[in-house]
């Protein structure tokens, strides 16, 4: 695949490995995706599947021990291989990130106004006064009440949800083209989660920010994402528009993930109201020491046959693709057919 | 609007004063604070507080026991002991504060450098620090003062240098800890360069540890000054200093014990006071103590 010229962020064959004395860990193995302006791409998968490492690689925040190959294009700029100096100019300006832990991601000794202003003064050269005025606007934008007063408060005076809103305000201060949200709602109450997702949704609509949303919460995905990339053991296994993925998952792993979601009433009703154990995926995630020329999910897959253990499946759309422009890709030798999947 | 504003103000004041209240409840720390305060005031206002000229001999009234005209007695030259203790406190505080400032001005940047950049910078700074720490503080100070030559300035420099390794150690440790906290990672993710990260995010958050180090450093420097002056490497007679007073008191321990007792008590009281205050501050400021 060649980079898509229309995409604001285009990742091609991104691989990340960590070398230690004892072994090499392949955390990310040939991940590719495109992100259009105003689009929300959800990256899902269980812990350790490489979803965070992928976005840290895009942000250039991995430690020097990480070995990165592939291409990361932000607009027309190639980011892969850039040094800290090159990254320093774009981080917070063209591409920004919000983190999982709002409680610890703000500096406790600076007012939130100064922390928002810091980014504005650095990237847009605003004066102290201008930065403060803009900080108030931004707090308003992310839905913080009484922003003119809040701007002078310290992080410990704000709740977790409010702090996450401040983090978002900092991230979007310079109107970045791409916002990477690494599990932005995981540490928050469900009611607060909804508020944060609403803020992200409105940013996408009002500023046209493209968002990469990393999560393992499929409810969040259904809520806000346009497209979904499912990762397993460092490899992409399925990518599809959100409705298609939920309606007709092609990869057995995606099916397993979806069937492991609690749906009030649904499963019990299907079983005539009796108690039923939530389906699980048997086995364990493989270690990432090797890059086997095989499907990494094969040991846990009911459909696996000899081909699955001897050849790596390509990440491609199948012949019975809906053909509506947004491809439905799956890395599987035996993907569910549309009829099967729709059941 | 006004209500919201004043509410905000009240809330932030309450948050800031919580630590002060916790410190007030700590009686030992408060006692230390009061004594240290008296010591500092005496040092600042020495010419106003002292009843006599500390260097003016009165040969008609030598080795006088404490009475109403000379509260702490007089020494072998008839000089007023109280005045000399007050001016001695001034010398002690001067050395204490200046030496600690010197140690911080040199130690903090080196600690930040070693902790943040690691690798070669850390190896070089840490090995030099280890080497200096291999010598006991006072031995190092005496050695340096002997090399520099006897004077109050040189004593200050010698004590300041001797305190640098401790400051480096603490700054480096705090930097190593803070380097990995989420808000530093977030600052980097927002395009913050090394300068921003070091001076806006790491250093301000290391302040509490450094404040505690300063309150421990000052009494150590006071003892250092007394020792150097006692050995003749610091303040030179007839200038008053607690160490000089103790030194000249040696010959008169039996006939005039007050010559040794009062300057000795002053050193002990000052040292103890600053240490108690430092302990109290550590309890209050240590985020891991978490008394919110």
TrEMBL record, chain A:
Its main location: membrane. One of its GO terms (biological process) is peptide transport. This is ABC transporter ATP-binding protein. InterPro entries: AAA+_ATPase, ABC_Ni/Peptide_Import, ABC_transporter-like_ATP-bd, ABC_transporter-like_CS, Oligopep_ABC_C, P-loop_NTPase. NCBIfam families: oligo_HPY. Keywords: ATP-binding, Cell membrane, Membrane, Nucleotide-binding, Transport. The lineage of its organism: Bacteria, Bacillati, Actinomycetota, Actinomycetes, Kitasatosporales. It is found in: Cell membrane. One of its GO terms (cellular component) is plasma membrane. GO terms for molecular function: ATP binding; ATP hydrolysis activity. Signal peptide: none annotated. Residues 11-258 form the ABC transporter domain. It comes from the Bacteria. It is a peripheral membrane protein. PROSITE patterns: ABC_TRANSPORTER_1, ABC_TRANSPORTER_2. Belongs to the ABC transporter superfamily.
